[in-house]
Fold each of these.
Amino acid sequence: MLLRTLTLAAALGGPAIWAGEPQIPGTPAGREFSAWLSAFNSGDRATLQKFLEAHHPARVKDLDEELDFRQETGGFEIKKVEESAALRLAGLVKERDSEQFARFVMEVEPADPHRIKKLELRAIPRPPEFATASLSESELIAALRAKLEKDAAADRFSGTVLVAKNGKPVFTGAYGLADREKKISNKPGTRFRIGSMNKMFTAVSVLQLVQAGKITLTDPLANYLTAYPNKDLASKVTIHHLLTHTGGTGDIFGPQFDAHRKELRAIQDYVKLYGTRGLLFEPGDRWQYSNYGFMLLGALIEKVSRQSYYDYVREHVYGPAGMTATDSLAEDEVVPDRSIGYTRRQGGAGAWRPNADTLPYRGTSAGGGYSTVDDLLRFANALTGHKLLNARYTELLTAGKVETPGGGKYAYGFGDRAENGVRSFGHGGGAPGMNGDLEIYPQSGYVVAVLANMDPPAAGRISAFIGSRLPSK
């Protein structure tokens, strides 16, 4: 999970020392950080609102966003002070409810009362000095079972989990409710919406067409989508740029999506809505996650294959992998065993409510389909067994190419990362009421698949818990 940047201009006096944690210096910056941490970690709406009203009125309108962030992270615990001056403090914090670390920077005004000018939180990989010891497989399964039971009881996890070794499951579990109103429990075969995990299937599809000689990665989009409305974008953005989120093509979510959500039924509907839009930056200049870029890859697949995106992935990805429970049928179609997603967004600690009013008409090449943990394992097995691509193109697909802000690299529709020298590749997905992650560990032969029908980082924190403790062999 990529932690957001927070900019606050407020603070209260607060404690300089947190029990069991590093001492926070008693400097102006240290006091301000302690005060912010105390208010944020309380998770109490009234406490945080009072904090903002008294010391940063401009942030009061963002109170729900602050509470959502608190709900996602569980708050933070400070792990290390790396830099301390009177007006600046920097160091490491860790989410209380997950394995995620972040680097923080606090800067305060020089004049009394030294209000906060800036507070940034940037996600980073777990630092080696805070590495978690690897467990044996039996120890991991016992620890995982205890973690899942605890989180399910606290309503922090609802979903399914699978851990496999050399293609065979060694742990499968299902927790929570697929339908809270009807009291239907999740089970191993429950289908969950997977958000951006569809990008893996899209990237595999594109590389299949590259392997077949029908697409060249260095070609501009204009070579294939000859009628694309914005000629400048189409002539500059290459297929490589789209696959690596370096094309500057922007997102699809926002006011336009909200206004047309139910009308966007085919990939071409998205191209029609956003196709006149220009570039956010020159292609190749930097990495910036782009759902629209993967929507354009869906349009590319349709043009080159002369099939709909949905027919192509069914025939060339799901079919060869044996994925019988994965698809992107419309939300108004009856899909057996598809769970209801539940969200607490817009207010943090409120009651869970169905996420139906946030969902697109159907999943796309950018995300939004549904799957099961068993099908994700089948996909991982087919990919590593070269049933989808040959060895050369599988390596090209999954090898990291561009540094990302949260650590690791982005490949083609896959993240490529290492923790304590152990490499994994895969992709997560998250939106209100849905979260999932697939991680493939090529050296040890482990595969981890987690799906949840609740807000992020419900699945991500479980995947990270497993990944940081997996046996190295």
Note: Residues 137-153 form the longest helix (17 residues).
Amino acid sequence: MTAAVATDNGVGATRLRNGLVDLIQTTELNGVVIDIKETDGVFLPETLKDFISELHEDGIWVIARIVVFNDTVAARANPEMALKRSGGALWLDNRKNGWLDPASPEAWEYIAGIGKKAMDYGFDELQFDYIRFPSDGDVKNIVYPVYDSKTTPKYVVLKSFFEYLNKTLRDYKPDIILSADLFGYVATQASDLGIGQRIEDIGHNFDYISFMVYPSHYYAGFQLPADLVRGLPAVNFPYRSADIKNVASNRPYEIVHRSMLFASDILTGRKATSSLVGANSKSAVATNATTTAVIPDEEIKPLSRSRLRPWLQDFDLGADTSRGIYYDAEKVRLQILAAENASTSGWLLWNPSNVYTEEALKLGW
């Protein structure tokens, strides 16, 4: 739920808001994610406290989504922690948004402060998104005020930030639930994808990890080796193909199911990180392997206690609809079944318009 829908008293926002609450009350849904910080600033009006209280009265779990380093407002107001160009101008991504330096201690403190305020508002959980380095735009021309690529890998910076968030926010409220949104590819890839996110650096810093396994977003295709323990074959779904049945966006069940099984095996220590795709090659998305190594039970050492709760796709993309692929009730439900069959700790649905597919949900719960 966007901030405007959560708090605006206009006819349109009120209708959407009431409709979403009703959807939660009449289906298996039991929680809501509310955007409180986007790239255009923080949105925490006092009226939001009343809405959170109303949701709690209905037994609804309330999550605050906080966009982290993608922050145009803070970048313009605080150039000392903003990404710039060599001439001193603010660096902007392809969407003309500014970014904060992920290595800036001031940026860390700023984000933690927002988290503390959200806790004071009564949110049950803090969810951190865009918790990464920028990926879109002329990233080679970024001038970082703090980060030094010559001495420190990006994933080291993010791992330190994960640890900082965990300690700082739990010192403020020990029982707060923390979660992080990560790229879908991070669930299976060895590389940090140029953005600093690696599954092996999650550690014990978050209660939930929400990989954004939107099938339409696998622009480099989706490949995984065979899973001999479960008797699952190797898969290779390209982004584009003459055989449209096998393109990634047309295989929602397999992408969500296999991603979650693979990530779970890595986090629980049942598979070594050397099993990650691209672990032994320069490519982040290609592998010649057909199987992955499984660690004997007596040697298992959990990598993380974080639980998996993936973001699922409940929206259409023009690149898909132009070739006849729509995310209707069947495709949304297939993703839900895939997550549940992979024994994830729940799942999340996203549609930027705040309109969700009721037909994909179970009624009467």
Note: Confidence is low (pLDDT under 50) at residues 281-290.
Amino acid sequence: MNPIDDQDLGNRIAAASRDSDSVGDAADATRFDRVVNLIVEIGGVAIFATIVGIVFLNALGRYALGFTFIWGDEIVLSLLPWLGMTGMFLAIRRRAVIKIDYFANLLPTPVAKLLQVLASVFASAMFAWLAIVSTYYVGFFGNDRLIYLPIEKGWFMSALVIGPALAALAYLIVAWQDFRAGRASR
């Protein structure tokens, strides 16, 4: 392969990467969708920056200064569910959730579209169930305090309720959009 072909391949890979990164904020996305995505992205970046900052300060303190913030690991572990939930919510809204649709693609288009709507409704129901079950867990353990800081675990554990509830809502919106798109194409 000559250098021109390598350059072309690199450009095509870069373009595909850009397209997949911006799938949720495409030109057909509403202003409301872009604002919601931006708010969640800012929250996710803030959580990630906090985690990275605490880990960096702990490593610096431990290896360069000879002390550590004992509460740092506790905060990092407590923020991870929120980070995961922001990523999950954005993946659903951007239709970037990993799925295997090999067999659905073998079906006739109307059947495949109906199956896609039903799958989103089913996913919404499962996330709603997870949110309901998680309320019991948070209710039972949420008043416990972190070991090193006087903060109730419920502040962090609420991600296990809020995240699935928002994911259920996001899947319902996806199902509605797919249903409307299917009706419009008839």
Note: Residues 3-184 form one domain.
